[in-house]
Amino acid sequence: xxxxxxxxxxxxxxxxxxxxxxxxxxxxxxxxxxxxxxxxxxxxxxxxxxxxxxxxxxxxxxxxxxxxxxxxxxxxxxxxxxxxxxxxxxxxxxxxxxxxxxxxxxxxxxxxxxxxxxxxxxxxxxxxxxxxxxxxxxxxxxxxxxxxxxxxxxxxxxxxxxxxxxxxxxxxxxxxxxxxxxxxxxxxxxxxxxxxxxxxxxxxxxxxxxxxxxxxxxxxxxxxxxxxx
Length: 229
Fold this sequence. Notes:
Serine Threonine Protein Phosphatase 5, Tetratricopeptide repeat, 2 domains, mainly alpha
């Protein structure tokens, strides 16, 4: 404490010491202000770049939606190869995925491509594209999980099929579609010879979705398992 008082007294009584102290403070402020200015500039650049990128992706999505219109038309007409690969003038889903991978349209094109490959019996390709698809809505994401389960079932990979049917039934459960996914899961567990798990899934339909169209089948298949076990 006495040392600090002595230092303060020296500064007051010695103009040269005071000047030296002030110059040191000025140099410190100048150096740190430069660092601060650089930091603010970088933050501004990053934020500005982020919003510019979002705007770019948004504009690209508008273009991609227009480019995908004909592919969707072909898909609905069951012209699957044209939908997938295009017709020479209009892009197919695969090109939409390549050209507009960051857009919502490119994401949705993965779903369409997965469905097409599933219909064509190209199950690994179907799984690849459906796994690349993601959505937050009530219906389509669960549907994508279920389709992946279907692709694994076709390949007799029942453990993976059951896993994806479980994901489908667990995604935003609802009485319209969840019971169907549960029925598929139960079948996969039967194929795995996991009878207790299959019965538990059937019971979930009976208890939770008692007013669904699947409840009678769930009761029938559960009773059959109980008789045979």
